[in-house]
# Entry
Amino acid sequence: MADSFTPSGQGKDIFNTALKTVEDGDNDASRMVRRHFRLENRRTSICLHPEEWDMFDMVAKRLGYDVKALINEIDRTRGESSVPSAMRVFMLGYWRDLARMNAGRAAQASAATREGSSVMTASTPHAIKVAARSGSFTV
# Structure
């Protein structure tokens, strides 16, 4: 018997939206988008789902990178994995670390509220490092 998971509150809305995205994606298996790049001294094409490209574009923008420059950096540090796979792992690491950072800020804000503090140190931005194999980027 499989374990059952039922999120609550806002988590339930996010969970259901994510499941709907998966369901919609399964309706059209040909939705992969191929983009062509010149990485270092070779030409290559990278094929990702539209949602992955959207997410990658967003991450590059948030980091202040041109998409091609970020792909080059990931390619340079990726080891044996394929470029698309390394890009996916990079994005997962980026959003995981950002979520951890935000969870820490939320915990600090909650503690400040419980203590009656009017100054919330959690609002102070902190740099985080996002790793792509052996490389890292500061956010």
In short: The longest helix spans residues 83-114. The first strand starts at residue 33 and ends at 39. DSSP finds four helices and four strands in the chain. The CA atoms of residues 17 and 23 lie 10 Å apart.
